[in-house]
Every structure is written in structure tokens, then in C-alpha cells.
Write the C-alpha cells for this entry.
Amino acid sequence: MSDNDTPESTQPPEIPVTGTQPTKGEAHAAAAETLLHTLASKHAESDADGQNVNAMLNVGLSVQIVLGQSRIPISQLLNLSRGSVIELEKKIGEPVDVVINDRLVARGDLVKVGDNRLGVTLTEIVKDYVPKR
């Protein structure tokens, strides 16, 4: 959060746009800040001083990018060795899943970041399924 932002701010943080791809750290920080800002803005009205929400802003989250899955029999698993290929159910070009704390939150496309790093460009935010009562 910058010095100009206040806990009551309802505008999402701006991500600087440059001619180059953001670094992994910048992309991760921007995505985490956007997610936490959304959570914080929902609770800002109910928490007058914002102290409870601000305490959560430094909590680390487990972020996983799931390229795909495969189901193989144990006999095939035991025969795996260096150089073995495990085929995934996803095809090249299909979006990868972004999972935070074991919950699917978004999908995106793999992108090259820098010389030899990978990143994910978010293309879809997954809405939670809330059953009707």
C-alpha cells in the first residue's frame, strides 16, 4: 500500500504499465495486493478504524499454478525413471489454474518473464459457487 492510500480507499491498486513484462515478484505482489484489496474493501465499511483488515495484509498465502493432472496406475508409477513422460489432461494453449490455499481462484496463460522464468497472465477470475437456499 502506498503512502497515499488509506484503508477506506475503494479503488484497486494500479499496476504500472511498461513496455516490458513485470518480474515474477512484481506480478505476484500486484496480484496478491489486488486480491487483498478486494477483501479489505468488503470489510472496510464494517470496521471503522480498519485495524483488523490491516493486520491481515502481511499474511503469506500458498500460491500454486497447476499445469495439469494425470491419473496412472501404481504399476506405471513404479516403472517411471529419468526421462519418463507423464501425459497431462490439458492441451497446449489451455489456461492453467491459479490455486491459492487449495482453492481455485483464477485461470491464466503461461508467459515468459525475463530470460528464463515463467509467469501467468490472469485471464479469468473464478467466482465461488454459492448454493441457493
Observations:
- DSSP finds three helices and four strands in the chain.
- Residues 57 and 106 are 20 Å apart (CA to CA).
- Residues 1-22 have pLDDT under 50 and may be disordered.
